[in-house]
Specification:
Layout (H helix, E strand, L loop, with lengths): L8 E4 L2 E9 L2 E8 L9 E6 L2 E13 L16 H15 L1
Antiparallel strand pairs: 1-2, 2-3, 3-5, 4-5
């Protein structure tokens, strides 16, 4: 099993996700998309070596670390500056 570090890219049910937060219930993950979300969907752009990705914040999921799998291609981690922007968006969304 891979380590559960905030900003890590993993797979959950064959969909790439980013670990956004750790909490008592498990890990909060957001979908990582290769295509730009439409409309007013909350998202943060992440430029990586592998290209441009978007962290989509509309449907977050709380999962256990055991439910996450490693990815074999694409980005492995998201930069800390991008994760700061994600946290800022989540704080706006929460409050």
């Amino acid at each position: 099993m891979s380590s559960a570090i905030v900003g890590s890219v993993r797979k959950h049910k064959n969909v790439k996700v980013v670990i956004v937060r750790k909490n008592a219930d498990g890990l909060l993950v957001a979908r990582l998309s290769k295509s730009r979300p439409r409309g007013n969907t909350a998202h943060v752009e992440a430029k990586t070596f592998w290209g441009d990705y978007w962290i989509v914040l509309d449907r977050l999921a709380c999962v256990s670390a055991a439910d996450l799998d490693s990815t074999w291609y694409g980005p492995e981690n998201i930069k800390k500056t991008v994760m700061t922007d994600v946290q800022r968006e989540l704080d706006k969304k929460d409050g």
